[in-house]
Amino acid sequence: MKKDYKSRREFIKKSSSAVLTSAVGFNILSAQPLSQRNINSETLKVGLIGCGGRGTGAALQASKADPNVIITAMADIFRDRLDKSYENLKLENPDKLKVDEGHKFIGFDSYRKLLETDVDVVILATPPNFRPGHLAAAVEADKHIFCEKPVAVDAPGIRSVIETAKKAKEKGLAMMSGFCWRHDTPKIDTYQRILDGAIGDVHTVYNTYNTGALWFHERQPQWSDFEFQMRNWLYYTWISGDHITEQAVHSLDLMAWAMSDEVPLKATGTGGRQSRTEEQYGNVYDHFAIVYEYPNGKKGFHFSRQQKDCSRAYHVELTGSQGTSYIDVFRKHEIKGKEKWKWRGEKNNMYQNEHDTLFASIRKGDPYFDGIRMANSTMLAILGRMVAYTGQTLTWDEALNSQEVLGPELEAFSWDLKWPMKEVAKPGITKFS
Ligand SMILES: NC(=O)c1ccc[n+]([C@@H]2O[C@H](COP(=O)([O-])OP(=O)(O)OC[C@H]3O[C@@H](n4cnc5c(N)ncnc54)[C@H](O)[C@@H]3O)[C@@H](O)[C@H]2O)c1
Hints:
Dihydrodipicolinate Reductase, domain 2, nine-stranded mixed sheet, six-stranded parallel sheet, binds nicotinamide-adenine-dinucleotide
């Protein structure tokens, strides 16, 4: 553990001196502003941090986004996860995978070792509690970033991400989040029309993410309690942020898009745990219902649940001063406004589109950046969880200034970590802090 702290300090020292000598936007290795480097002919090297389902998918999409991209480094806390991811990538796109044994990093400090290599772009796809720390380290190390949503699990994490995003912007680094619906052609087309006034001023947004049960890894005798939590991270609020943050945040991001990314004034809500009550499911809720109040009387209504054998819904309904719009996330996109309109085009692969856009923007010297927006969309979910857990109406500012830190600092992680799980939140009893 001491060794970790020491090397972390050295890394920070090294990275900070790189920032100091590089002034704004200069990569210490190339001594050229990142955004102005002529990298069109260069091979872009990609590193993957968090080699699970989504990280592997994102690495594959990155490898297909540009003819001259290779994956050169991988990091995970579990060897079996990294090996499985490596095998899948080898199967799907072997020519683009150039990760030798020396560039496979295992452990809680694996992110740092990967950032010390010469990768140009990093994919951050661990559980979200690690995101603020990994983002800060990646920007210190001058890497372009694709990071999965959500980008934090608590308000101090969001504040850190906002500071990091500002630094990334100053340095000319790409920062793209995995709020993938923003890259889905039917939605791009529909939202463009709505924001151009097809239904007048949008004043009400109803959005859902009602789904069934999710994956669960049976406990193995050799696992400690902490390993069990890390393997089943979805069910622990301190690691996932609860399912409103980890999953339903997609619907809240669609609400934010309809509201032109204006943030709400306050929220009120409820939630609880009815069907997924066994101890193995940690301390997360299985349903939420939140009302977001915006300036000028606009409102957003959010429902989400993870309960098996219940009806499902994953959609957004918008009401404006001159019409309505119904978006079933996977199928239907229609507008009933001044004119009736239904989307009928060719659907794209939004995950591939994200990476095509990201790599093209890096090549162009105009790196894609949604760093502040991804923080605000994640904060909508954290605010929703806070009002449901406490039973209190909270303003955006109160929530954003919350001092509640759900997990330990990045440097404190080791397999000896003892992090007691908080009991399931009880509205009216659980306090806001
Ligand atoms: N955009 C989308 O549609 C979408 C879909 C699925 C998941 N996600 C998001 O992607 C992220 C990952 O989800 P997933 O489904 O791939 O989960 P997963 O459990 O399959 O993968 C997470 C991986 O990260 C590893 N990991 C955990 N802590 C780590 C650390 N400190 N350092 C390095 N590696 C670490 C785990 O061992 C695991 O291999 C989550 O934030 C999730 O919300 C987004």
